Amino acid sequence: MYEYERSYKTGRGVCVVMELLGWLLVFVGFIAVIVGYSSGGLVGFASRSFMEEGPPVVFRLIATIPGLLTMAAGVYSVMETQKVKATLDSAEMTREMLSISRRNDGALSSNRVEPSISRGLAPASSTLVKYYRTKQIMRRPTGGVTVDGEVFNDVQEAEKHIDMMLKNGA
User: Fold this and answer.
1) pLDDT tens digits along 71-82
2) Which of 21, 34, 67, 124 is deepest in the core (most CB within 10 A)?
3) Per-domain residue ranges for the chain?
Protein backbone atom coordinates (compact mmCIF):
# COMPACT_ATOMS: atom_id res chain seq x y z
CA MET A 1 0.00 0.00 0.00
CA TYR A 2 1.09 3.54 -0.70
CA GLU A 3 2.70 5.17 2.33
CA TYR A 4 1.64 8.62 3.40
CA GLU A 5 2.60 10.94 6.22
CA ARG A 6 0.80 10.15 9.47
CA SER A 7 -0.31 13.12 11.50
CA TYR A 8 -3.09 13.98 13.93
CA LYS A 9 -1.17 12.28 16.75
CA THR A 10 -3.53 13.58 19.43
CA GLY A 11 -6.60 12.32 17.57
CA ARG A 12 -4.99 8.94 17.01
CA GLY A 13 -3.98 8.76 20.69
CA VAL A 14 -7.52 9.51 21.81
CA CYS A 15 -8.76 6.82 19.40
CA VAL A 16 -6.46 4.22 20.97
CA VAL A 17 -7.72 5.07 24.47
CA MET A 18 -11.38 5.08 23.40
CA GLU A 19 -11.00 1.76 21.58
CA LEU A 20 -9.40 0.15 24.63
CA LEU A 21 -12.18 1.50 26.84
CA GLY A 22 -14.74 0.14 24.40
CA TRP A 23 -13.23 -3.35 24.50
CA LEU A 24 -13.04 -3.10 28.30
CA LEU A 25 -16.77 -2.31 28.35
CA VAL A 26 -17.45 -5.36 26.18
CA PHE A 27 -15.48 -7.55 28.58
CA VAL A 28 -17.14 -6.09 31.71
CA GLY A 29 -20.55 -6.44 30.09
CA PHE A 30 -19.86 -10.08 29.29
CA ILE A 31 -18.94 -10.73 32.92
CA ALA A 32 -22.11 -8.89 34.02
CA VAL A 33 -24.22 -11.09 31.72
CA ILE A 34 -22.75 -14.25 33.25
CA VAL A 35 -23.16 -12.97 36.82
CA GLY A 36 -26.67 -11.69 36.14
CA TYR A 37 -27.82 -14.97 34.62
CA SER A 38 -26.28 -17.15 37.30
CA SER A 39 -27.58 -15.05 40.22
CA GLY A 40 -30.99 -14.19 38.82
CA GLY A 41 -30.70 -10.57 39.90
CA LEU A 42 -32.35 -9.18 43.05
CA VAL A 43 -35.15 -11.73 42.92
CA GLY A 44 -32.55 -14.48 42.83
CA PHE A 45 -30.78 -13.15 45.89
CA ALA A 46 -34.03 -12.74 47.81
CA SER A 47 -35.31 -16.25 47.01
CA ARG A 48 -32.15 -18.16 47.92
CA SER A 49 -32.41 -20.78 50.55
CA PHE A 50 -30.70 -24.08 51.10
CA MET A 51 -31.71 -26.92 48.73
CA GLU A 52 -34.21 -24.77 46.89
CA GLU A 53 -34.22 -24.36 43.16
CA GLY A 54 -33.08 -21.02 41.72
CA PRO A 55 -35.16 -18.17 40.33
CA PRO A 56 -37.22 -18.67 37.19
CA VAL A 57 -35.50 -18.31 33.81
CA VAL A 58 -37.38 -15.09 33.07
CA PHE A 59 -35.79 -13.40 36.08
CA ARG A 60 -32.40 -14.71 35.02
CA LEU A 61 -32.84 -13.28 31.52
CA ILE A 62 -34.00 -9.93 32.90
CA ALA A 63 -30.89 -9.86 35.10
CA THR A 64 -28.67 -10.10 31.98
CA ILE A 65 -30.03 -6.88 30.44
CA PRO A 66 -27.57 -4.47 32.15
CA GLY A 67 -24.65 -6.59 30.98
CA LEU A 68 -26.01 -6.76 27.43
CA LEU A 69 -26.46 -2.99 27.36
CA THR A 70 -22.91 -2.51 28.64
CA MET A 71 -21.60 -4.80 25.90
CA ALA A 72 -23.60 -2.87 23.28
CA ALA A 73 -22.14 0.42 24.53
CA GLY A 74 -18.64 -1.03 24.26
CA VAL A 75 -19.18 -2.28 20.71
CA TYR A 76 -20.67 1.09 19.75
CA SER A 77 -17.62 2.86 21.21
CA VAL A 78 -15.27 0.64 19.19
CA MET A 79 -17.34 1.25 16.05
CA GLU A 80 -17.30 5.03 16.48
CA THR A 81 -13.55 4.95 17.12
CA GLN A 82 -13.06 3.08 13.85
CA LYS A 83 -15.08 5.76 12.03
CA VAL A 84 -12.87 8.49 13.50
CA LYS A 85 -9.74 6.60 12.42
CA ALA A 86 -11.15 6.28 8.89
CA THR A 87 -11.86 10.02 8.84
CA LEU A 88 -8.30 10.80 9.92
CA ASP A 89 -6.91 8.47 7.24
CA SER A 90 -9.12 10.12 4.63
CA ALA A 91 -7.91 13.59 5.63
CA GLU A 92 -4.28 12.50 5.41
CA MET A 93 -4.73 10.84 2.03
CA THR A 94 -6.58 13.86 0.66
CA ARG A 95 -3.71 16.08 1.74
CA GLU A 96 -1.29 13.70 0.01
CA MET A 97 -3.35 13.74 -3.22
CA LEU A 98 -3.37 17.54 -3.16
CA SER A 99 0.39 17.53 -2.73
CA ILE A 100 0.84 15.17 -5.68
CA SER A 101 -1.49 17.30 -7.79
CA ARG A 102 0.44 20.46 -6.98
CA ARG A 103 3.77 18.76 -7.78
CA ASN A 104 2.38 17.80 -11.19
CA ASP A 105 1.25 21.38 -11.79
CA GLY A 106 -2.41 20.50 -11.46
CA ALA A 107 -2.34 17.72 -14.07
CA LEU A 108 -2.97 14.21 -12.81
CA SER A 109 -2.35 12.65 -16.23
CA SER A 110 -0.33 13.33 -19.35
CA ASN A 111 -3.49 14.02 -21.40
CA ARG A 112 -3.95 17.74 -21.00
CA VAL A 113 -7.38 19.09 -21.86
CA GLU A 114 -7.66 22.44 -23.58
CA PRO A 115 -9.12 25.26 -21.49
CA SER A 116 -12.88 25.46 -21.53
CA ILE A 117 -14.39 27.82 -24.06
CA SER A 118 -17.48 28.33 -21.94
CA ARG A 119 -15.29 29.91 -19.26
CA GLY A 120 -13.71 32.36 -21.69
CA LEU A 121 -10.33 30.64 -21.62
CA ALA A 122 -10.16 29.63 -25.28
CA PRO A 123 -7.07 30.47 -27.29
CA ALA A 124 -7.49 33.68 -29.24
CA SER A 125 -6.81 31.89 -32.54
CA SER A 126 -9.86 29.58 -32.18
CA THR A 127 -12.81 30.54 -34.35
CA LEU A 128 -16.45 29.81 -33.79
CA VAL A 129 -17.83 27.24 -36.21
CA LYS A 130 -21.38 27.11 -34.88
CA TYR A 131 -23.64 26.85 -31.86
CA TYR A 132 -25.15 23.41 -31.46
CA ARG A 133 -27.72 22.86 -28.71
CA THR A 134 -26.36 25.70 -26.55
CA LYS A 135 -22.73 24.56 -26.92
CA GLN A 136 -20.02 26.34 -28.90
CA ILE A 137 -18.10 24.29 -31.45
CA MET A 138 -14.76 26.01 -32.11
CA ARG A 139 -12.25 25.30 -34.89
CA ARG A 140 -8.66 24.78 -33.73
CA PRO A 141 -5.76 26.35 -35.63
CA THR A 142 -3.96 22.99 -35.58
CA GLY A 143 -6.98 21.13 -37.01
CA GLY A 144 -10.12 19.60 -35.57
CA VAL A 145 -12.72 21.23 -33.37
CA THR A 146 -13.30 21.62 -29.62
CA VAL A 147 -16.36 21.56 -27.38
CA ASP A 148 -15.82 22.68 -23.77
CA GLY A 149 -12.12 21.94 -24.09
CA GLU A 150 -12.48 18.42 -25.55
CA VAL A 151 -10.92 17.89 -28.97
CA PHE A 152 -12.71 16.16 -31.89
CA ASN A 153 -11.71 15.41 -35.47
CA ASP A 154 -14.73 17.05 -37.10
CA VAL A 155 -17.99 18.87 -36.42
CA GLN A 156 -20.16 15.73 -36.73
CA GLU A 157 -18.14 13.97 -34.03
CA ALA A 158 -18.51 17.01 -31.75
CA GLU A 159 -22.28 17.11 -32.37
CA LYS A 160 -22.59 13.43 -31.47
CA HIS A 161 -20.69 14.13 -28.26
CA ILE A 162 -22.99 17.03 -27.39
CA ASP A 163 -26.06 14.86 -28.06
CA MET A 164 -24.64 12.15 -25.77
CA MET A 165 -23.86 14.69 -23.02
CA LEU A 166 -27.36 16.15 -23.11
CA LYS A 167 -28.94 12.69 -23.23
CA ASN A 168 -26.98 11.65 -20.11
CA GLY A 169 -27.97 14.86 -18.32
CA ALA A 170 -24.52 16.45 -18.22
Assistant:
1) 999 999 999 999
2) 67
3) 9-103, 117-167
